[in-house]
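May I ask for whichever protein you like with its backbone structure tokens?
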Amino acid sequence: MGNITLGKYIPMDSPIHKMDPRAKILAMLLILISIFFPVGWIGYSIIFALVSFVIILAKLKFSFIWRSMKPMLFMLFFLLIINSLAIKTGKPLFNIGDFVIYSDAIFNTLYIAVRLLLMIMITTCLTATTKPLEMTLGIEDLLKPFAKIGVPAHEIAMLISIALRFIPDLIEETQRIMKAQESRGVDLKEGKIKEKLMAILSLIVPLFVSAFQRAEDLANAMEARGYVPGEKRTRYKVLKMAFRDYLLLGASFITLVGMIVLSKII
């Protein structure tokens, strides 16, 4: 659980940290769209190089990004098993009993793994270099044009910001409850399936109680400070786009166009 780094802000003095949150969010969306084009290993290598360059500029460690990927390894292993059983195209690589593992099953799993890795790298970089308040302001500004058709821009931005903010807190609370349960003799790793289900239940119930208590405390705190959803609000900090923000958007847009062209060529 402690491996999950999504939602954690890492204070650093880097050019990426100083960028406008709107530019970073839009750049993330453009790159995410680029990932879903079938651009092959060449295209994904280009995207990986660009994202790695941004991570280096942000002064983040790749080990920090890798910790976000580790919880997904079990899902990828399960996906490999499903693909091995379902995909029967390509060259036969090896046999496991009566089952034959084909090359397309391995390559499709690797394809998904690379896409997932790139998406996690981008989203983790965004949350690690953007303060929760700045994230809220950026999402709200980007959603403002949709307010004319009744979309509650501020409320959606607030919900997203709170959700990202409380991911690390809930993980920390889960670890605390797990240690408390283990100290009382609850074994979360060994035992029969029924015993494991009961152990998980003993973890989930207090976690939900704690989450609802945190939500109630937050609601009371916001109400005590005069927060009213839908009311017109002023800002202490006003977002302004600089040259580096337009440069990031331009590079992201060029990457998207390049991936579209590359997908037509391949």
Remarks:
- The mean pLDDT is 81.
- Strands lie at 92-96, 99-102.
- The two ends are 40 Å apart (CA to CA).
- The chain has two domains: 1-131+238-266, 153-229.
